[in-house]
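Quick one - inputs below.
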Amino acid sequence: MARDETNIEEEIFPRDPAKSYALVGLMDRSTPQAGHGPEETLFSFPVVLLWELVLLLGVTFLIFLFSLIKQAPLEEIANPMVTTDPAKAPWYFVGLQELLEHMHPTLAGVIIPGVLIAFLVFLPYLSPGRRGVGHWFGSARGGRIFAATTVYTLLAMPGAILLDNAFSLREVLRGVVPQWVSQGLVPGLILVLLVILPLLVLLRLRAGGDELILALFTIMLVSATVFTLSGFFFRGPGFKLYLPWQMPGGYNPLDGL
Amino acid sequence: MMAQPAGDSAAPGPGRPELFRSWIVNSRPWQSIVRHGWPDNPLDRSLVITSSLFLHLHPVKVSRRSLRWSYSLGLGIMAVILFAVLVFTGVLLMFYYIPSVERAYSTMKDIQFAVPLGQFSRNMHRWSAHAMVLVVVLHMARVFYTGAYKSPREFNWVTGVGLLLLTLGASFTGYLLPWDQLAFWAITVGTNIAGYAPVIGSATRGFLLGANDVGQASLIRFYTLHVALIPLALTLLISFHLWRVRKDGGLAISDPDVVAGGDDGT
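Output:
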């Protein structure tokens, strides 16, 4: 019995004392090193480790220097009876707070963040293929789309904020239509329109799926930046719009970091 | 193990530094700790990486292209470095901080005025936290704009979105801990936003705060999330994220088809 097994094994894997390698399995994909000639690679040691050491020292040194110059804020002890003015969320959520000024809380605080997170999660599965991988903006045309969408968003979103601040939809439509229309449907539609407009232009220019995703992501990122900057630097007491250097009551937005 | 000094065999005998090095490298403590020779040859340079728990996430060899600063900007590594700085300074602060409504603010004052380097440690912690949020967002933008989220890296992108949310959660939960006016009202405003969800809004807010308003229940919840749950989740997910970078073939700029497509990847 035992002898039979060894025979079969010998038959399948004939022993050859000169052979020091074996084919273990076949994979239906490329390995990380496929396509790399030896001249295209370096030993990680020490190059990569030095690279990381430079980053480690650089990053910690910058934080170190900044910590020497600027003290972390500590205000008066928390007092639920005394509301600060303005009361702001941490800077990375202040964009949502800015959004709340312009539309219904459910839309600004729940639906829009939910849609953005869903977009981020499903984004790679919407991408049609591997075109443009490993290149900034995929192609020269991708770079132009990025630049154009950035400029567009930098004009459209601050414009929308200022316009709504001057002629508040909330106030204009108060009592004329139900609240969910004036604060939900109308601002929601305006926002959708602002996002779709550049996509329609791109579709006219026969943009591919990747280029539409590129534009969408850029609109999202630049809008988030605009709303965050607006909420952080341009909102003062009463969460009203001011120029950062003309804040009343000695309020300094940077104190809230 | 190849523990011979660097010089070729043609060199006229080893000098004093080489002798000293070979004495170190051949010593029993060295051999018992690192299990490889002086890394001046391909075998030992490979072993430095593969035989080390901390370094073995790196490949033994990397493509030259993936080292271009202009491609990756080093943002992912910066995020990991900032996380490490935050863990280190955070543990220092934990030695003094007490998460109770009565004591939190006074321990903050102690940290700022009585503890040696307390203010400085807190500064490092706070600025690193802000920097980490910023760097993680920039890293996401870099990965997106270089198409590095595309096949086969789709799932690692999703993992990255999870890491972004965890980073925001880590920063947000830490924001309450100083228990000053800034912290209290920022968290009140922030959790109010969560409360705007229809049907589940007030339940979500209550789950976060442990009560109807920001108080002791919220402080201990935020503290536990901030020092235990979120850092643990971040550590696990970062490990997975980095492992997956290797499994998906390293940086996208070194993918075979990208390399074959020409050298215009800068």
